[in-house]
Amino acid sequence: MEIVVVGSIALDTIETPWGKAEDALGGSATYASIAASYFAPVKIVGICGDDLDEKAHQMWRDRDVDTKGLQIVKGGETFRWGGRYHQDMNRRDTLFTHLNVFEHFHPQLPESYRDAAIVLLANIHPSLQLEVLDQVRAPKLVAIDTMNLWIDIALDGLHEVLKRCDLLFLNDEEAKQLSGKSQLLPAVEALHAMGPKWVVVKKGEHGAILFTESMRFSTPAVLLHQVYDPTGAGDSFAGAFLGSLAKEGEFGDDALRRAMVHGTVLASFVTEQFSVDRLLGIDPSEIVGRCEELSAMTRWPEKL
Amino acid sequence: MEIVVVGSIALDTIETPWGKAEDALGGSATYASIAASYFAPVKIVGICGDDLDEKAHQMWRDRDVDTKGLQIVKGGETFRWGGRYHQDMNRRDTLFTHLNVFEHFHPQLPESYRDAAIVLLANIHPSLQLEVLDQVRAPKLVAIDTMNLWIDIALDGLHEVLKRCDLLFLNDEEAKQLSGKSQLLPAVEALHAMGPKWVVVKKGEHGAILFTESMRFSTPAVLLHQVYDPTGAGDSFAGAFLGSLAKEGEFGDDALRRAMVHGTVLASFVTEQFSVDRLLGIDPSEIVGRCEELSAMTRWPEKL
Predict the structure, then answer these.
(1) CA A222 to CA A295: how far, in whole Å?
(2) DSSP string, B171-188
């Protein structure tokens, strides 16, 4: 199966307690497309200025990501985001947001994109996510990732998107904020009622939980000696999750469990360096190694 | 195997967003002894005033907890603690601490306690934990639970205890504080170097992780519709963990995994009501049911 990913392409300026990166390639569509490309064919939809260097475009070519849906604005500046992480990496401050070319963006799906089986509406404004949904013909699976910003300023649009989605990715704070419930289980029940039959609650260093009608599946995060920069971990989780499903071509319970594991593992790589530096050039054996590490960490006793 | 539990016996005044309890039975030894009693014989060491009502004493009798090591001070007042939880139940404020009879407490182990195979030094001042260690003869397993307060004001004593312990229970913030490391894995390595060969990091609603030389085992928390009051969850975890090991009589990897599961499950019951209200009278079938729920939530796909 093929995946269409729509989201942001950004140049990020990031400070963490361990270092700083300026104008480093980022954005939800960037992370999600690269992570998904380890598993299945990916087509990206987005916008950038011609200040995005050739290295970025070469990266998509190297990962066989189809960029026909990428709009490159001549003389335009790429979206820029600045953020700062503290010792507690689960929290961050946004320092600045320059929309630039994003301000007048309307996603245009090339004809060859419109029959994709899987659509990932990565983290962008809900109105843009809706425009994509109006252009795809009969996806088998529509997934949405979102963030607190859209819950704050575009709630109606977000609800519209949710009605048309099968799968919602969000973190635990967002789950509580969007549902208005202070505890996780009632929050997830409320989210299901908004549309998505599957909800994945991402919890950063505490792992993630998948909720479907028939099951719940919890994975811990991969334990790392040093989380360097968590930016893009959630986007990479979503990309790898859907890539894993696309590769299998079916969405049974075990396929969903494997998707959770692959999402968790790809997200772990991202956090080890700034930008996509660690996400590029992962050896397949490294992915298998971390899957086995997670498996060992959750190996249940032979009997209770 | 038998377990000796030393810790506090308290009357707690607790406020949560959902309600308030005054002078409700609590304390680390109370929770730990009751939780452990579902699995193995327990002997408690502690102190209380004669204001502790007959109901509390009857409770220990009902659970077959040996109270020969319990000092009841005539005319004395039981230790009292007041705390307030907010919407984010992972954080709490201490409103008051009245040591009362605790101020001059020195644990005295009856002769019949001194050959116990398992010793739980539940959360009390490290100097009292040391006094207990000087009275037991040849325990097979010594476990310690601690808190941020002792890291702040009794660090040297805590280090002394740690050198003589096999197993350390603490939460993730305490792990970082005690080790001086901001990330979990280096923190746990530093804790191992302080003495305990096994470390259990408790993460509240995010579950717990056990670290030994040969393995790591992660369990999610039981998902509840309503966490009512988390007080005593960590103590109950420790009690049930050791109870489970005591019942098995050996400390192999699968026995440790089952201990993690039992700790997680007993902790989940405690949080559903104030005080020990839910911890008393749990039907064994309810314990099995929640173990199976956790097992289902972490069931790994048949193949990766």
Answers:
(1) 10
(2) EHHHHHHHHT-SSHHHHH
The number of domains in chain B is 1
Q: Residue A99 sits in a domain of what CATH number? A: 3.40.1190.20
A149 or B40, which is more confident:
B40
Residue B85, Cβ neighbours under 10 Å: how many? 20
Residue A150, pLDDT above cutoff 80: yes
Mean pLDDT, rounded, for B280-293:
96
Provide the ipTM: 0.93
Q: Which of residues 182-211 of A touch B (CB under 8 A)?
A: 182-186, 203, 205-207, 209
Residue A276 tokens read as: 């996509």
What is the predicted pLDDT for the residue at B64? 97
* Interface residue A225 vs chain B (CB under 8 A): yes
Contact B11, B76 (CB under 8 A): no
Radius of gyration of chain A (CA): 18
Tell me if chain A has a CB within 8 Å of the CB of B86. Answer: no
Instruction: Look at B304 and A295 and tell me if their CB atoms are within 8 Å.
Output: yes
Residue A88 has pLDDT above 90, yes or no: no
Interface test with A, best of B179, B213, B286, B297 (most A CBs within 10 A): B297
B214: helix, coil or strand? coil
List all residues 6 or more positions away from A248 whose beta carbon is below 8 Å from its beta carbon.
A255, A258
Residue B91 has pLDDT above 90, yes or no: no
In a domain, B303, yes or no: no
Matching residue, tokens 């971990």: A233
Phi then psi for residue B43, to 5 deg, are: -120, 125
Quick one: how far is CA B96 from the chain centroid?
A: 21
- A189 φ, ψ (degrees, to nearest 5): -60, -40
Domain around A240: 3-297
Q: Which residues pair with A273 in a beta bridge?
A: none
